[in-house]
């Protein structure tokens, strides 16, 4: 990290030299000056490395923040971002003899610190629910300079779908059901005499879309291809109703 910073700084100073020789504009000179100041500040204050994560509903996942640089005393903490505010969920305070750990009451049975190194903090969620799908701010309270922070986002996802169809009293009745989080979407390709859709919000935070279609077996378009298209997270999955000829 130190070597990379040094190399970037050297390149910036070389470009500044070109500016003085008239090879760049005044605006470029000002921009490079600010870049060098930013590099030096980053070197002094440190930077936080993070990574966004995805996990299936009910799984386990670890969020981690790594503070670059060398510091003697660091107190890491975590906040969950909710709407336009944030809530403290975990914190560590350290001294020369021991470490004090704080975890908010609602998380004590499903969250733990899995790394408590001075410059490396990680929290693990167990049996995640949809409510954990959010962004989290990790904060390093550095003594004596003060806090610096960054954020990492967690997406909890879940999906399953199926198609059911039968013929009763001269009507083909097809029902396509998709349940997931983020919520899926359903559309149909093919003929339809009647189509209706309803949305259910489940107790675990997922959303179910139930789409039903009816086709009269005596109509002229009966027997044409009928497809339920389910869209979920930039994917599209086809569920086809087998073709049935008239009289069958």
TrEMBL record:
It is found in: Membrane. The keyword Glycoprotein applies. Keywords: Disulfide bond, Glycoprotein, Immunoglobulin domain, Membrane, Signal, Transmembrane, Transmembrane helix. Gene3D superfamilies: Immunoglobulins (2.60.40.10). It comes from the Eukaryota. The keyword Signal applies. Residues 58-138 form the Ig-like domain. It is a single-pass type I membrane protein. PROSITE patterns: IG_LIKE (PS50835). This is OX-2 membrane glycoprotein-like.
